[in-house]
Amino acid sequence: MVNSKFNYEKYTMEEFKFDYGRVINNVQVQYTTEGTPKYDDEGNIINAFIFCHRSSGDCLSFYDLTQLIGEDSILSDYNFFYISITSLGFPESCSPSTTDLKYDFPQYSIKDCVNFKRKFLAEKFNITKVLGILGVGFGGYEAYTWACEYPDEMEFLMIGDSSFKTNGYRYVISKVIDAMILSADDYYNDDVYCQNLSEIMVSINRLLYSQTYSKNIFQNLTLRELDGVMDEFVDEGLFKDIYDIKFRNDAILNYNVEDKLTNIKAKTLIVSDSGNVYFSLEFDTYPLKDIIENLSIFIFDGKDFIFSDDYSLFFDLFSEFLEEFKL
Fold it and tell me: Which of 142, 138, 60 lies closest to 130, judged by CA?
């Protein structure tokens, strides 16, 4: 759901062409911006810093990082122009639910999500090259894909708790979600949203809850606490649309840019939680050391961060990494 505490804007692209050829018209894009654009002598914006949100978020998830990148943050004098865009397939931007196409929405890939944002940036801001990209979770998939497919379009890349492909545990989870959705008798029912689909969404949200915290957090919560937080997570998830979930899950199932990682030219920072149950250091972080040339890796304990909600752990890291891009 959109957080009404912060402002956002809407833009409509005349059309968007998917990678496999299908075109849809009157394409809605939700976005928010912070900071002031700076221009070169030819009138091009040179300080665009793009934020790509998690699968549980939208463009306003950017404001979760106000300690790091807000008006009073450590980066307030770096003069970045932040642009956060609700991704393709998510409510408020173009999605199965907001277009009312439901199961007939075009099948899309993570590359389509990237091209959706690239087209918007070009149309709205005349931006064809950004200064940098920050992606977290699902947004990290977009950031990896952007840097692999269009390596000359950014100078730096920051990715938190994400990966460059869907395999192993993540593949199993996505296959289970797909099977659960397709087991619903009313998935192709054009009538009003039915009880059967709501029950499926409850089960999916319980499964997705298993990815929300690190191993240490889950281990240290009592059963009563686990139930309470799970129920809260499930209740919030009931606002999500099953068709949005299905098409996003399909994109995740087919996500893999491993063979293109050597294309990345941007200075890259990978930030990983040592106890994450969905993304592992062994398979998703450390292998990058031998693949991406200009790479820094930072490992933190998610338990300490989640319970304090204190971003000071990252202050020096962000400042040092971004210092050369200060304008």
Answer: 142
